[in-house]
Specification:
1% strand, mainly alpha, two-stranded antiparallel ribbon
Length: 496
């Protein structure tokens, strides 16, 4: 077996994949992985662009007439579940299905979810969202594990592969709000939900046709569970899922259980789950020496990153509502759909990413993972301080779009710094055979930030928008400053 693809600290037998490199240095099958993720991201960002707008739209416009606080909480629940679903999805990829079958099954579920959302009938919203959530939970960690498998050995090479992957999928994030937003806001909301189903089907076909290019990458589980044990675990998981659906989801969808109660249970579970899971991972794979210190450093950085995602995830809720209600969107007589502002962020990512790549090269090891996390948090905190100024000005009438453009620019700089570095760090410190699951943990901390942000938006019932933005911006800015001050210690913890 070629051990050049073995994650640091893993034995060759625990390597997630083996692949033969092309003679010119290209990563075999990287383009196919990119195509599948492009459509999965089209689904994700398309939903992020229109979900809150649909929930808050008046019934005569085809919406659900929800209060902004409730709509934002539902949006946060959907986003956090997309992250949380990566935990069972990553386990299935690592122990039962293998990454390839996880991608195929997950993509199929996403397609079915959007098909259900396209049906304008009562109850389809929550059923469709849950199908999309289940599919996303399978696709994301399995896709990340396959990227790690084909990218090669070494932290720098792996981080470069994730950075390239992350930048390329911004094209999908750029196009999705434009397509779904235009169709949803100007034609019918449910057609916007349906848009991703066609693309996801095309991506799955391309992936299935290109499987032979991956050699052994993702073909089998890295640490397969014995058949009888796997069947028993799957039965228990199915039973638990059915119980949650019967006790929480179905009653909430039928109006028999207050939505706030369901969201509260989900929020508490989300906050506790990543810390519980990391503790259980330590027990099942007792780390020794430097690996224990690296997991400690990883946990500290992931906990800090929740503050970044708390603000970042409000782009599709709080900022969408601000764009719709408090921003002058007239452009030469054409009213720009509010959802189109969601395309500004990926556009900025594509524009400034080359500048950051050059900065990382020039700075070298001085700009390591803790520095990138601190910079991202500080940028996110400053963005909401800017929003506080914009909200204050909006009290006297609609403000210009340049305020949102500046905020999205700060978001973009923060995401470029934090997201690829976080993925690469998770893949690097993962215990043998747990790459997909630790990548899912990275997403779970994002879910914590999403849920906390969604619940904090309820403060707008007693706080002015200006005070709300000022409070959250100051909190995240303080977190970023703390990470910056703790950089020397974090470096010592993360050193192999």
């Amino acid at each position: 077996m070629d051990t050049s693809l073995t994650p640091p600290g893993a034995s060759p037998a625990a390597a997630p994949a083996t692949v033969v490199r092309a003679g010119n240095g290209r990563r075999p099958g990287f383009g196919t992985l990119l195509a599948v993720d492009l459509w999965e991201r089209f689904s994700f960002f398309g939903m992020a662009a229109i979900l809150v707008l649909y929930l808050t739209a008046a019934e005569e416009r085809g919406g659900m007439s929800m209060a902004p606080q409730s709509a934002t909480a539902v949006f946060a629940a959907y986003m956090s579940l997309c992250f949380l679903a990566g935990l069972p999805g990553g386990w299935l990829a690592d122990r039962v299905l293998g990454a390839r079958r996880a991608v195929l099954l997950g993509g199929t579920l996403i397609t079915c979810g959007h098909a259900v959302l396209a049906v304008p009938a009562p109850g389809t919203l929550y059923a469709g969202l849950l199908l999309v959530v289940a599919g996303t939970g399978l696709v994301k960690p399995a896709m990340a594990a396959m990227v790690a498998g084909v990218s090669g050995d070494g932290e720098g090479r792996r981080e470069a592969a994730f950075a390239l992957f992350y930048m390329c999928i911004q094209v999908s994030a750029l196009v999705a709000p434009v397509v779904t937003g235009l169709v949803a806001e100007r034609v019918a909301w449910h057609l916007g939900f349906a848009a991703a189903a066609f693309g996801m089907t095309a991506g799955l076909l391309q992936f299935a046709l290109g499987l032979r290019r991956y050699g052994e990458v993702g073909a089998r589980p890295t640490r397969p569970v014995p058949g009888p044990e796997a069947a028993a675990l799957l039965r228990r998981a199915a039973g638990a899922t059915a119980a949650v659906g019967a006790l929480l989801v179905v009653p909430a969808a039928c109006g028999l259980l207050p939505l706030t109660a369901v969201l509260a249970v989900l929020g508490l579970t989300t906050v506790a789950l990543p810390f519980w899971y990391l503790r259980s991972l330590r027990r099942s794979h007792p780390p020794e020496g430097r690996r224990a210190h690296r997991l400690t450093g990883f946990t500290a950085l992931m906990a800090a990153s929740t503050a970044f995602w708390m603000i970042f995830a409000q782009s599709g809720s709080v900022l969408s509502l601000f764009a719709e209600r408090h921003t002058d969107r007239d452009l030469l007589g054409f009213e720009v759909p509010a959802s189109w502002f969601q395309s500004v962020h990926p556009l900025f990512v594509l524009l400034v990413a080359p500048l950051f790549a050059r900065l990382w090269l020039r700075a070298g090891p001085r700009v390591d993972v803790p520095v990138k996390f601190a910079g991202a948090l500080i940028a996110a905190g400053l963005s909401f301080l800017l929003m506080a100024v914009a909200a204050r000005l909006a009290e006297h009438g609609p403000v210009g779009p340049h305020w949102l453009l500046l905020v999205y620019l700060l978001y973009s700089c923060g995401e470029i710094a934090l997201a690829p570095a976080g993925l690469a760090l998770a893949a690097t410190v993962a215990p043998p055979g747990s790459t997909s699951r630790l990548l899912a943990v990275n997403g779970m901390f994002g879910a914590v930030g999403v849920v906390v942000g969604g619940q904090l938006f309820r403060l707008t019932a007693v706080l002015s928008p200006t005070a709300y933005f000022l409070l959250l911006g100051s909190l995240v800015l303080t977190t970023g400053t703390a990470v910056a001050c703790g950089t020397p210690r974090l470096r010592r913890l993360l050193t192999p």
